[in-house]
Amino acid sequence: VRLFDSVHYLKALGAGEVWVAVGWSSDILPAAKRLSDVAVIVPKSGTSLWADLW
Description:
This protein is an all-alpha fold. It has helices at about 10-15, 25-35. Helix content is about 30%, strand content about 0%. Keywords: Signal.
């Protein structure tokens, strides 16, 4: 378990420092297109329109 902030999580994913992250789709989707090791997983049931993860 590791703490990271909402600014550096993409860098940590890209570097392989973390395997799972919750992030904004506007960050994650472009990163998944650029980085072959980053994938987006969406449940068959769909996702929430909005979630407060504080």
